[in-house]
Structures are given as C-alpha cells and as structure tokens.
Amino acid sequence: MELFPHKKHISDYMATCFYLANSGVYEEKQLFYQHVKNIILEKHADFIGYDLQIIEHKCWSCGGTGVWKKYWYEGNARYLLKEEKCWNCKNGIYQIKKISLKRYILNGSVYHIPCDESMIDKEPVQNIIQGIVKHDVVDLKEAFESFLILLWVYNRTEFYYHVKNVLKSKIQGIAEFVQNLMSRKNNDLPF
Ligand SMILES: [Zn+2]
After folding, report:
1. Interatomic CA distance for residues 76 and 48, integer angstroms
2. Is residue 21 within 8 Å of residue 147, measured between CB atoms?
3. In angstroms, what is the span from residue 86 Cα to ligand 1's centroid?
4. Strand-pair partners of 114
5. Residues forming beta bridges with residue 121, ordered by sequence position
6. Where do runs of H (alpha helix) occur along the chain?
C-alpha cells in the first residue's frame, strides 16, 4: 500500500510515455512541446503554481571572468599585455534570461511549461530554478515512440499531419533519386 497514493490523471502507461517523451532528446522534440505536452498538462494535470527559471549566459569574450585580457604571442609563449574590465558583460555574465513557468503535477510527477511573463506578476513565484532543467537519460527510440503514441492518442490531427510530412519528404527523396538516375545517358547507367 502506498502511504500517499498519487492521483491518476491519465493511465500509468500514458504517464510513462509522457515521462519518456519529455526526457528524451529526439529530432521531433519541438513537436512534442508544441502539440503534446501543453495539451496533456492543460487538459489532464493539476496546475499547482508558477516557478521562475533563471539562466545565466556566461560571457564568451572574457570566458566568464569579467576581466578582459590582451595577450601577445611569440613562438609558444604567451605574454599578458594588458588587463581590463570586460565591456561586453557584467562580472562575466553576458545575459540573464528569466523564464516564467507553469508547474503541473501529472500522476505524481512535476512538469513545467513556459508561460507568458505577464501572468506571473499576478501570482507569487514558488520556486526559482537555476539554469537548464536536466532530464533523466532515456532510450532515444523509446522516447520517440512514446511521443508518437501520445500524438496518436491526444492529437490525432497533428499525428496525421506529421506522418504525411515524413512520407512526403521520403517520397520526394526517392523521386529525386529516380529522376537523377533517368537523366543520365543510357550508357552511363550502371546496369
Ligand atoms: Zn565578459
């Protein structure tokens, strides 16, 4: 018996698919964010508040030190000519990005989706997330297949649209290959 049994918003199978599709890094990940994640969280999960993600971009000019150094090279030796405050950044930080996130709970797990900045002014932020959210490393094929399953179940229109696009690009590739082959002179053909 679970001491604090979590609420089931969707079936366990679908929740596992969601976890895998959200963790994996596959080519179509952007489509998952656009056409699956928002839909499932907004429709089925519990919204439990706003978080703020802060991403600091280090300055490339000074390597994040805040000090710009000019060197002079001779042979393999390097001599420091001068050292001054880096003008491209503030203390080595080039840019600070703040992203407002909506936090949801789905079958006992927490997930985020970015939201409009203006919404966060009205409600207090609960957590500050420093840097990029790291996902568990999962099997790429499993993650992609999970995405397809979720797309099929929760956004059928987009599923057909995606499959049509994949087929179209494959057929186009084959058509170009055949056209290329046919445009050769008969005696150039390798058969
Ligand atoms: Zn700098």
Report:
1. 58
2. yes
3. 5
4. 101
5. none
6. 12-23, 29-32, 38-44, 117-120, 140-154, 156-182
Return the biggest CA–CA distance within the chain. Answer: 77
- Residue segments in the chain with a per-residue pLDDT below the cut of 70: 1-4, 117-122, 186-191
**What's the gap in Å between 59 CA and the centre of ligand 1?**
4
Residues 6+ apart with CB under 8 A from 163: none
Residue 178 lies in a domain: no
Q: Is 77 helix (H, G, I), strand (E, B) or coil?
A: strand
The parent domain of residue 73 ranges over 12-172
Tell me how many domains the chain contains: 1
Mean pLDDT of all residues belonging to the chain = 89
Residue 80 alpha carbon to ligand 1 centre in Å: 17
**Measured between alpha carbons, how far is 123 from 66 in angstroms, rounded to an integer?**
35
183 occurs within a structural domain: no
The Cα 84–Cα 153 span in angstroms is: 59
**Three-class DSSP category at 127:** strand
pTM of the predicted structure, to 2 decimals: 0.75
Query: Is 185 among the domain residues?
Result: no
**Residue 22 falls inside a structural domain:** yes
Taking the centre of ligand 1 as the mean of its atom positions, its distance from the CA of residue 72, in whole angstroms, is 19
